[in-house]
Amino acid sequence: MSLSVGMVSLGCSKNQIDGERMLYKIQQAGHRLIGDAALADVAIINTCGFIQSAKEEAIETILEFATLKTEGRIKKLIITGCLAERYKEEIKTEIPEADGVIGIGCNDDIVAILDEIEKGETVVRFDNKEKLSITGGRVQTTLPFFAYLKIAEGCSNCCTYCAIPQIRGKFRSVPMEDVIAEARELAESGVRELIVIAQDSTRYGEDLYGRLALPELLKKLCEIDELKWIRVLYCYPERITDDLLKVIAEEKKIVKYLDIPIQHCNGEVLKRMNRKGDNASLRKLMEHIRESVPGIILRTTLITGFPGETEEQFTEMAEFVRDVKFDRLGCFPYSAEENTPAASFDGQLDDDVKQHRADIIMEEQMRVVDRKNIELRGKVIEVVTEGYDRYGDCYFGRSAMDAPDIDGKIFFKSPDMKLVMGKFVNVRIDDILDYDLIGERTDEPAQ
Asked: CB-based burial of residue 409 (10 Å sphere; 0-12 exposed, 13-18 middle, 19+ buried)?
């Protein structure tokens, strides 16, 4: 029997790709996909379970759809993803409305699971998490001109605050030929921007080839004619090599943008996190990257209030942010996650203290961004059109300086030309609004 199936995919882009692979299998089996899961026969909630705020969002979404099922507005409810993998026993007990609770190692079985629950069975199934497919067809759920390309699954870094190795298993790279084949397929379908992702993109190839093969992979991706932008996220600082920087600097298709989640700058805090580096080495690295790739946009993420973080260590991080002047930065208060080493560390800080410190970091970053954005006034920037804001009566999009969903937007007028989604245009920047830019389309060349 053909069913209508909708999915709500929460959390990171890596989890989103897992959902896209499930949707592909469901579609290939003859079921009908619906964009609004609340209108489907079967709703699949693809959850995130990384930190407390993500878990709360997942639980709220599950409860919302449990209510829809009770009211008869949907027929069946399936819960999968990281939260299901991590809290299988609790979900089975606390969400009796769920017809299926499945671990990520069972994603490939989604069609058989649909058949079982349609027959009235309740399916609770977990398998080896490393059986999660890292290749295969996808139903693209991003805007049609960009897509995420997952080059590895799992993580073996074992940072003391992070549950990803427990949830996702050890780091394992996707064979290079499979990555290239998937990238070509996406490009042929109309994708112009590929965003390369993994838990640690810079570790790519170490397990398969005995070397850090990200530079080689990026060169091969640049050979795909249809692609215009290639962006790299989640690069660990200790594995950013001169070979990688050389490729980023020389290859025109690779946007001059690098995401390096450092989490902290104090050496003692980083050691407790089971991460490498310190204030001096990180400053030196950022300076070296900027010298190697002139004009590069640097993004990072930081954690405030890690167990034992002193006021002096926090102040050191605030000064680091002020001095290094990252172009893009996100900051999160530490979240104590069950069964991680850091959750049992001495020196756990009050939630208000952690949040207050995060707010201070973001205030420092806002001042940095203001100064950088002021320098963009009057400049012409290439922008990819993402849509039309009918309230603002203008288009909006992103430049190569901005990754989707996490960075700012550029809002612009185009009085003499109607634009379609995915069209690249040049925009003269006239004004700024917090993290966003405002301008007007122009025929002048980008600077």
From this structure: buried
303 exposure class (CB count in 10 Å sphere: 0-12, 13-18, 19+)? buried
Which pLDDT belongs to residue 90?
83
Q: Decide: 38 and 45 in contact? Cβ < 8 Å.
A: no
Counts for the chain of helices (H) and strands (E), in that order? 14, 19
End-to-end Cα distance, the chain: 57
Q: Compute the distance between CA of residue 135 and CA of residue 194 in angstroms, rounded to an integer.
A: 16
Q: What is the pLDDT of residue 131?
A: 83
Task: For 249-402, list the strands marked E by DSSP.
Answer: 254-259, 297-304, 328-333, 380-389, 394-399
113 pairs with which residues across the strands? none
For residue range 414-439, list pLDDT tens digits in order. Answer: 998 899 999 999 999 999 998 999 99
Q: What is the CA radius of gyration of the chain?
A: 22
According to DSSP, residue 363 is labeled H
Can you list the domains of the chain with their CATH numbers? 4-131 (3.40.50.12160), 146-374 (3.80.30.20), 380-442 (2.40.50.140)
Percent of the chain scored above 70 by pLDDT?
A: 100
- The structure tokens listed for 51 are 């930190």
Is the alpha carbon torsion for 219, 447, 195, 207 positive or negative? Answer: positive
Are 13 and 41 a contacting pair, CB within 8 Å? Answer: no
What is residue 321's three-state secondary structure?
A: helix
Q: Over 80: is that where the pLDDT of 162 sits?
A: yes
Burial 183-205 (b: 16+ CB within 10 A, else e): bbebbeeebbbbbbbbbbbbbbb
Burial class (CB in 10 A: 0-12, 13-18, 19+), 30: exposed
Percent helix, percent strand, percent coil in the chain, to nearest 5: 40, 25, 40
The first and second tokens of residue 145, run together, are 């001109």
